[in-house]
Amino acid sequence: MTDAGDQSSLVVLARAGDVAAFESLVRSRMNAIYRLDLAILGDDADAADAAQETFIAAWRNLANLRDPDRFEAWLQRVSVNACRMIRRSRGRRLVREMPMAELEAAGSGLAAPQMPDRDVLSRALVRLSHDHRAVLALHHAEGRPVKEIASVLGIPEGTAKSRLFKARAALEKALHEERNR
Questions:
Q1: Which terminus of the chain faces fewer neighbouring Cβ atoms within 10 Å, N or C?
Q2: Contact 78/26 with Cβ under 8 angstroms?
Q3: Rounded mean pLDDT of 135-142?
């Protein structure tokens, strides 16, 4: 990944129409955006579609980014919105599995070691709303603090904190229900 100074320079060049600079930004963030989308959507194909839509929207709207130093947070917001659109376009169908190995590899912390059945966790995550999955993914899979989550989602910090609390409670409830099925 590029460092912050290089990234800002690439953003400035890309905003001026430099396709090679934008391609470099895409290469540096592609895997992270895909992992975020996968954590939110829980489906490989949908995550790939969302990642593609993210970078298309980023190219089209790069001129709207006021501060090149905020590119990463801005791109994550574009990604969360792309996931929301993919989910709406696909309806609320349930996915068969949540790729937990990739979440754990990203340091999610969601899979508690005492939980014997990852399928239970997968089914519980699928039951959560888009907003709950997004905030959990940003916090646990991406390791973002509440302040950054608020920035990415474009919401006040208190709202982000509240959503994270509610998402954890919803996940706990869904886990309980899945275990007792």
A1: C
A2: no
A3: 86
The Cα 96–Cα 126 span in angstroms is 9
Please tell me the predicted confidence (pLDDT) of residue 94. 43
Q: pLDDT band at residue 96, thresholds of 50, 70 and 90?
A: very low
Angle at 45 between CA 82 and CA 18, to 5 degrees: 50
The closest alpha carbon to 49, from 91, 98, 82, belongs to 82
Spatial distance between the Cα atoms of 97 and 36, rounded to a whole number of angstroms: 16
Q: Quote the CA–CA distance of 79 and 75 in Å, as a whole number.
A: 6
Which residue do the tokens 């989910």 mark?
A: 87
Given a contact cutoff of 8 angstroms between Cβ atoms, the answer to whether 125 and 42 are in contact is yes
Return the H-helix or E-strand segment holding 55: helix 44-61
Q: Give the model confidence (pLDDT) of 9-42 as tens digits.
A: 999 999 999 999 999 999 999 999 999 998 888 8
> For the whole model, what pTM was predicted?
0.67
Residue 50: HSE in the Cβ half-sphere, 13 Å Cα cutoff: 33
At 142, the pLDDT band (50, 70, 90 cuts) reads: confident
- Side chain identity, residue 93: R
DSSP state letter for 95: P
